[in-house]
Amino acid sequence: MILPIVAYGHPNLRKKAVPITADFPDLKKLTADMFDTMYSSNGVGLAAPQINQSIRMIVIDTSPYSDDYPDAGNFKTVLINPQILSEEGEEWLFNEGCLSVPEIREDINRRPQIHITYYDENFSFQDKNFSGIIARVIQHEYDHLEGILFVDRLSSLKKMLLKRKLSDISKGNIKVKYKMIFPNQKKH
Ligand code: ZN
How far is the CA of 124 from the centre of ligand 1 (A)? Predict the structure, then answer.
């Protein structure tokens, strides 16, 4: 089932999401719904706060990047209660976008290597290192669990220049091909 994605300005995008346990109700269905929602909006990652659930859960499939980044080709995973333990290496720029912030893309600096622990979709514990584009997508989605959006990482000048556009997004004054919840939309 495809779920609506909450847009910039929604309070759930600003909360620190809470961990879940293995007996979380309908976890299998939620996982499938998150993948459906991500694929139908052509995303490579989706965090639960974006579908209005303030829990620590992420789905990722980086295969659309496989032409430019071969290791992205078969990385599809669910990350539950992830914890980034370290981020290392020299920061690199990548042009990021976000399903909750449509029509805006900006170059964002992040470190290329991460050490992360999480539970997979079967709730088995994972302890892994990722680098490059996979680390990048995880870092972006992980930020969502902390109430952080990629535009927060821009310079104050860039943020100022985007203010109007962001306000339009929160009001639903944009054309977008997937279903969204706009927090500041005027009722008809
Ligand atoms: Zn995002």
Answer: 25
Task: Going residue by residue through the chain, which has 188 residues, state the pLDDT in tens, using 9 for 90 and above.
Answer: 999 999 999 999 999 999 999 999 999 999 999 999 999 999 999 999 999 999 999 999 999 998 888 888 889 999 999 999 999 999 999 999 999 999 999 999 999 999 999 999 999 999 999 999 999 999 999 999 999 999 999 999 999 999 999 999 999 999 999 999 999 998 76
**Residue 119 alpha carbon to ligand 1 centre in Å:** 21
CATH of domain 5-181: 3.90.45.10
Q: How far is the CA of 188 from the centre of ligand 1 (A)?
A: 28
Neighbouring-strand partners of residue 130: 114
Inter-residue contact 170 to 184 (CB < 8 Å): yes
d(CA 58, CA 75): 13
pTM here is 0.97
